[in-house]
């Protein structure tokens, strides 16, 4: 290399460094073995060491073990498929703040067209994620009135049963008929009812907790948990629920469990309200059908009601924030469904009419990145 080439090279290097440091995102480049080769100032700041010290280290030196493990799995995957990949990570900083980042990763090649390493651009999503989380949580509280009414229904039967038991005991006592066996039966039967009431409350309380991290969860179990809270309400509203599950096995989704339950609940409640209104006007047998199936990458849940199509001039508006046709509606439910399923979980939610049926279709990724299929290298 002559002097001029050296100068050109130095200028190029300088240009690259300035470019990398000017970009607001943390960026790094690492070898196929996972050792850092280079990073920009923003990454060094995030890792809390100098750019020079970053060289040679691995993700395990900067991130919690589970984040580093996930990193390794993703690296293995992109080196296998040679396709760029996006992922989300979060970690707690030393002072206890949770930070969320989007990662965009891609492989790069050397002059012999061999994989030379992996480039990663990180985008700080913390503010956006926190705003979304608090908005989702607030919208959950907007549905609370309806949920509490459901709990009242759910408690009705056990309360009637309990009061019957108590009257029976009082009657036996009055007639001097009470014996040990009767007392123990009274206790056992009462406890069954109390247990049932307490489970409804536990399910309700669990539902209120925000799921701030993505997890693997069973969709059928989630649906079952929803109906443990609203089942009796639906039943007393004279609505039939039909389950059409394509396979017997559970379908595991990767995402925010309680928020998905919130989405399903709102769609079911919308259908319920429509059916109740129709029933007030004429005799009608309302049916809500819940279908669960899966394809290679997604779990698909269809929620179908038979209570009349959505007008064609509003069907494209129903997911808009604050769009409602109800006197006491908020117009937040379906908008939140979009935010939760599409923005937060990279899924899809849509609606269509089929004759007099309305079909809401929710697609959610199956336990992300088929992580189980990739054996990480170390
Ligand atoms: N199953 C359904 N059938 C017909 N229209 C529906 C159905 N679900 C939702 N909609 C329409 O979408 C609107 C928005 O729903 P949503 O966002 O849940 O807000 P809200 O329930 O407060 O009105 C409803 O007001 C209604 O007009
Ligand atoms: Mg609603």
Task: Tell me about this structure.
- The chain has helices at residues 3-22, 41-47, 51-54, 59-62, 65-81, 126-142, 144-174, 180-208, 219-236, 257-281, 333-344, and strands at residues 27-31, 36-39, 85-92, 98-109, 115-124, 215-218, 240-245, 252-255, 287-294, 298-305, 348-354, 357-365.
- It is of the alpha+beta class and 378 residues long.
- A five-stranded antiparallel β-sheet has the order 2-1-5-4-3, with helices on both faces.
- α6 packs antiparallel against α11 (333-344) and α7 packs across α9.
- The longest helix has 31 residues, at 144-174.
- The chain is elongated, with a radius of gyration of 28 Å.
- 23% of the residues are buried.
- The site of adenosine-5'-diphosphate has 19 residues, from α10 and α11.
List keywords for this structure.
single chain, 378 residues, alpha+beta, Beta-Lactamase, Heat Shock Protein 90, 5-stranded antiparallel β-sheet, 12 strands, 49% helix, elongated, disordered C terminus, binds adenosine-5'-diphosphate
Task: Summarize the topology.
Layout: H1 3-22, E1 27-31, E2 36-39, H2 41-47, H3 51-54, H4 59-62, H5 65-81, E3 85-92, E4 98-109, E5 115-124, H6 126-142, H7 144-174, H8 180-208, E6 215-218, H9 219-236, E7 240-245, E8 252-255, H10 257-281, E9 287-294, E10 298-305, H11 333-344, E11 348-354, E12 357-365
Parallel strand pairs: 7-9
Antiparallel strand pairs: 1-2, 1-5, 3-4, 4-5, 6-8, 9-10, 10-12, 11-12
The protein binds adenosine-5'-diphosphate and magnesium ion (MG).
CATH architecture of the largest domain: 2-Layer Sandwich
Strand order of the largest sheet: 2-1-5-4-3
For the termini, the CA-CA separation is 38 Å
Count of separate structural domains: 2
Strand content: 15-25%
The rounded Rg comes to 28 Å
Hetero compounds: adenosine-5'-diphosphate, magnesium ion
How many β strands by DSSP?
A: 12
> What fraction, in percent, of the residue positions are helical?
40-55%
- Using the coordinates shown, work out and report the CATH topology of the largest domain: Heat Shock Protein 90
CATH superfamily label of the largest domain: Histidine kinase-like ATPase, C-terminal domain
* Mean residue pLDDT: 91
The CATH class of the largest domain is identified as Alpha Beta
Shape: elongated
Structural class: alpha+beta
Regions with little confidence, pLDDT below 50 for 5+ residues? 372-378
**Order of helix and strand elements from N to C terminus:** HEEHHHHEEEHHHEHEEHEEHEE
Number of helices: 11
